[in-house]
Amino acid sequence: MQFTTSKVLKILGINRNTFQVWLKEGFIYPGIQRSTKQGEPNLFTRDDLYRIWFFKYLVETGLTREEAARFYKRTDISFENVGPELGQYKYLVITRERIPQVKRGKLVVHEIKKTLGDIHLGKKQVYGLIINLWEIKEEVDSLMSG
Description:
This protein is α+β, with helices and mostly antiparallel strands.
């Protein structure tokens, strides 16, 4: 199944200008076809919709768009294999920067903070969120059917 930009915006309720900036800056991209000329649509997969929602969620949680894009682009995250079974539905997001005002909604299982020693850089704080990918998939599926 493929989705045009208009369909993605309608399903996910994302502002067109915001979405266009995300595309132009390379934070997100279509999995099927990227528009290279006027009249040629961007075409997204169902997995792209999950990833876009994941990206949007990370930005709303407090990560920068650049940090969120790093996780959007990870090839080891596949929403097709995400299920409710234990061990299949959580993903750890680690960042070196403090995550400001972390929203502890149902998608964030918890926040971690750990100090790691580094020979060259001294001690650095590492912050992380464990994200429930199953909830993201469920929310997007619900938006698609609604």
